[in-house]
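Slide 14.
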Amino acid sequence: MKKVILSLLSILLITPALRAENVGVPAECEDVMLQAFYWDSYKNQSGSDSKYGRTKWIDLLADTAAINANFDLVWFPPSATSTGGVGYIPAQYSNQGDNSTSWGSKAKLNELIAALHAGKTKVIADIVINHRGNKSSWCDFYADNFGAFGTYQLTSAHICKNDEVNSSSSAGSCKGAATGANDTGTNFDGARDLDHSNEYVQGWAKAYLKWMLNTMQFDGFRYDMTLGYKGEYLSMYNEVSQPYFSVSEYWEGIDKQVNHLKATNYNTLIFDFPLKYKLGDALGVDGASGETRYNLLKNPTSSLRYKGYKRYAVTFIDNHDTFERSDNQGGEFIKYKADLGNADVKRRIMEANAYILMLPGVPCVFYPHWARYKNEISALIAIRKAAGIHSESEIEESSTISPSRTYEATITGHRGVVVLRMGVNRDKEVPAGFELALDGGAAGNYTIFLKKWAQGIDEVESGESRVKSEKFLENGQLFIRYGERVFDAQGRLVK
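Slide 15: predicted structure.
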């Protein structure tokens, strides 16, 4: 018996997936995230630019009351100076808009972070370290001064030797200058790929991340283009910097995503791209028939949840790379540049939001959806928070194909239980012991029932006193009136 116990203990100690805590992966995380930008959303509103609202620092600052009332995490675009407006080819990492960027000045960024922190909202930085932009040629870089964490000057010796700088005629005098090791991942041909096997590059990345957390006051990281380098480096950087939250953009199928998580020693979450595409198959409008197939939502075999990794899944519908990008029209949840105000399009968007906001994982709401349907999405977030649904919540699902396609899930949170039913012919009868929390109605074919409202409060009245909740905004904060009682967005009793 003693040998068996020791063997089990050894397995628990050496298996990263079974660790009680992982760096950047909060256990049973109740957080809801907002991606607070989309492609080119820094532009002034003219013509089709920023038609869902501009998202410069000053614009987000004006909306902090509503953001703080609903979201725990806010993902910002890359904040360093960049050779591209959106920020994904950073030129000088220690320059966070000292002389302003497309998104605004460093002073305004600091003010925005402070305002979000005052509302108990954490801020996620977009970390682009796979590649970087140059100073005046393909092989020179600006120096980075990270204050107490060090000053660094990368050179051509830190560029991967199989980068196109060594082969392209466009590289000019820099052709052949890169002397780093071969790339450990997929090459990005829009900038110089950095050699993360190099200890100096590792030191630079560690200093940058610690500076972002301790000096710039970010709380966590969204790692861009992690296909470009080994997962072990991401793990190393998180172990050193200790972010509250980390999510990796590893744009691949489920098996490769699982391998990536293993490579990072499970020290990050990962965007659930396979589930995003399954949502498109089930609820999107770009299929052959445009038919909504709710039954496909049941434990999709391509999802992290199906594979047993729901704790590490950041679920989402669209992002800046998949939404209204002319170079990626097939990646969008709905048809390319479909009218979000169209009733059918709105229905499908709201159904997808209801799905990710009621299920395990950490849901990430996309800014254009939030901007268009703020009240409807706020109501869904309030229900999730009232029940305490979290990244590891237990879930039971069922679905039907004939005579009508439907989906049903029962999700258990820290403070209650939610039943989500979807489909035109879904059962609308209130389950025993539950109350009707929300019916999508014209907004979507979903109905949500709730069993508990808040910690310390018994189950809501059942029987004949079934009263639909009423959502309302007051001073930019969402509240839910349920009979004679009022709760805030976190499910706490107000009166």
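Speaker note: Residues 147 and 388 are 40 Å apart (CA to CA).
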